[in-house]
Amino acid sequence: MKWGLIGASTIASEWMIGAFRAAGGDVVSVLSSDPSRAAEYSKAHSIARGTASLDELLSDPEIEAVYISTTNEKHFPQAIAAIKAGKHVLCEKPLAMTSKDAAEMVRAAKNAGLVFATNHHLRNAGSHLAIKDAVTSGRIGKVLSIRVFHAVYLPPHLQGWRIDNPAAGGGVIPDIVVHDADTVRFHLNEDPTDVVAMSAESGLGTGVEDSCMSIWQMPSGVMVQTHESFTHKYTESGLEIHGTEGSVVARNVMTQRPVGEIVLVTESGRESVGFADHNLYERAVALFSEAVAGQGRPSADGADGVKSLAVAEAVARSARTGQRTKVVYEEI
Predict the structure, then answer these.
(1) Where is the Gfo/Idh/MocA-like oxidoreductase N-terminal domain (predicted)?
(2) What is the DSSP string of 160-227?
(3) Which of 55, 112, 256, 260 is the least buried, fewest Cβ under 10 Å from its Cβ?
(4) How far is CA 139 from the centre of its chain?
């Protein structure tokens, strides 16, 4: 598959270009709003063409699919343009600034017969696949609650617009809460109904929240507690899933790398759970490519992206109002 990059981003250079090539594809063009950056980026990553024109990239008949990793406010118009040009789309999260726009993107791709996916990477990790298997196989009985701890320190080279630009979709809620929403949905196979949340600006940036805590109610009665932050330098990330017959305790698994540890605690004692150490982005790209070939579905499709964004929107509304807030899911 021939890919075009919409966005000369850090995540593309660190992870996605290698994943596209590992899956047997290639990146043939990259878009940046800065022509000099487009030229430098394409040269540095052995990409045939660099351009500052979205129309030029999308009119390239060699390109079958695009990967969108620009700032959040650009996702919607760029995805719609790509769909109109007949390109399959893999888009970074959050899909758009609103779940309404995200749903429109997904419907447009569906109507055009194109594959549309969200780059929710954690559900591709060997650790999370092993956790899901432990839960769905009944090893902890009926699930009662989940605790997600995803407070991290945002590296300086990734801060920028994420900590000071609400117009571009900055803030920890659109950046990390959407990931946690997708991860919880992945493990439970159900969608949160309502949330209660608080957020804070701790001084890392200005104008956007850099920390958030929330509680979610699930249709089954499972309660979910989450903590996200950009400001915690010395924490461990992870999640705990507690059930009637046991608990899964996973540390350092909310990460792009195949690391961490998983412990299953039951009446019999503590048991270490092994997991595969594959590159999670390579798995996501492989599944996307198979979906384009008519085999299966992406690991996280457009509907997954719309729903994770709807949860994040509800968390943001609750944090602003101080009220318990219903999650509103758009029709797709």
Answers:
(1) 2-120
(2) GGGGT-GGGT-SHIIIIIHHHHHHHHHHHSS---EEEEEEE--SSSSSS--EEEEEEE-TTS-EEEEE
(3) 55
(4) 27
- 70 by Cβ neighbours in 10 Å (0-12 / 13-18 / 19+) ranks as buried
* Residue 74: HSE in the Cβ half-sphere, 13 Å Cα cutoff: 14
Q: What angle do CA 184, 101, 124 make, to 5 degrees?
A: 30
Peptide bond into 94 cis (omega under 30): yes
122-278+309-326 placed in CATH 3.40.50.12100 = no
Report domain extents, the chain.
2-119, 122-278+309-326
pLDDT digits (tens, 9 = 90+) for 32-41: 999 999 999 9
* Total-model pTM: 0.96
Distances (CA, A) of 204 to 5, 179, 236, 312: 30, 21, 19, 21
* 318 within 8 A of 215, measured Cβ to Cβ: no
Quote the CA–CA distance of 215 and 151 in Å, as a whole number. 15
C-alpha distances in angstroms, 42 versus 8, 23, 36, 108? Answer: 9, 20, 10, 30
- pLDDT, tens only, 107-120: 999 999 999 999 99
Q: Do domains 2-119 and 122-278+309-326 have the same CATH topology?
A: no
Enumerate residues 6+ apart whose C-beta is below 8 A from 31: 4, 5, 6, 7, 8, 38, 50, 51, 52, 53, 54, 57
Query: Which residues, 6+ apart, have CB-to-CB distance to 207 below 8 Å?
Result: 164, 165, 166, 170, 201
- CATH superfamily, with its number, for domain 2-119: NAD(P)-binding Rossmann-like Domain (3.40.50.720)
